[in-house]
Design a protein that fits this description.
With 187 residues, the chain is of the alpha+beta class. It has two domains: 7-111, Winged helix-like DNA-binding domain superfamily/Winged helix DNA-binding domain (Arc Repressor Mutant, subunit A, Orthogonal Bundle); 121-186, no CATH class. The chain has helices spanning 7-18, 38-49, 55-64, 101-108, 134-138, 140-151, 168-171, and strands at residues 24-26, 32-35, 68-71, 78-81, 111-113, 121-125, 182-186. The strands form two sheets. The chain has a five-stranded mixed sheet, with helices on one face. A two-stranded antiparallel ribbon has the order 6-7. Strand 3 (68-71) and strand 4 form a beta hairpin. It is globular. Mean pLDDT is 73; it is low at 117-138 and 174-180. It comes from Saprolegnia parasitica (strain CBS 223.65). This is HSF-type DNA-binding domain-containing protein. Pfam families: HSF_DNA-bind. Keywords: DNA-binding, Nucleus.
Length: 187
């Protein structure tokens, strides 16, 4: 038996099915929601499906569910993409789950380009986030290592010199079979 999509995702599907395409529609990739007339969307569409008429609240919900804003579009158009949000595949949409607010804040800052370039590196976390410690996120050496991946190789990051034991706190409580790191993949 297939699992139903989350209520928010179900409302998005209803909206895309019943509202005029000149206001809100599927994006050309069939993995995105495209808002084509923001004024009419806020005034007429949002109140029919949600208990508010604030576009910022709607955007926040999209971010909480892992949708990414697509940049590089005309100013009048706003598009949000999600890997599991695919036209005609309701079963896959059950994989779209609400992200806790602290993790959603990092997701909303990421904007998805229309098309990645061939040389654009993609950082892939190769261990579960539960194994990472808050100290790891604040470690200057780790920040120095990740800066080229996060900000591009042209950005100079002024951080203290790395210490020899900069990864000790990550592996302190982990078993010997744990592997934590990043991998750069060219797409």
């Amino acid at each position: 038996m297939a699992t139903k999509p989350a209520p928010f995702v179900h409302q998005l599907l209803r909206m895309l099915k019943h509202e005029p395409e000149d206001v809100v529609a599927w994006g050309p990739d069939d993995h995105s929601l495209e808002i084509r007339d923001r004024t009419r969307f806020v005034q007429a569409v949002l109140p029919r499906y949600f208990r508010h008429t604030r576009f910022n609240s709607f955007q926040r919900q999209l971010n909480y569910y892992g949708f990414q804003r697509v940049k590089g579009l005309p100013k009048a158009t706003t598009r949000y993409w999600h890997a599991h949000f695919e036209k005609g595949r309701v079963g896959a949409m059950s994989l779209i789950q609400r992200i806790p607010p602290s993790r959603a804040l990092t997701t909303q800052a990421i904007e998805r380009p229309l098309m990645p370039s061939a040389e654009q590196p993609v950082a892939c976390w190769t261990a579960s986030p539960e194994k990472a410690t808050p100290a790891a996120a604040n470690d200057a050496s780790l920040q120095r290592l990740l800066a080229p991946l996060l900000y591009g190789s042209d950005v100079a990051v002024d951080l203290p010199a790395p210490s020899p034991s900069w990864l000790d706190h990550i592996f302190a409580d982990a078993g010997s079979s744990t592997s934590i790191g990043f991998e750069t993949v060219l797409i």
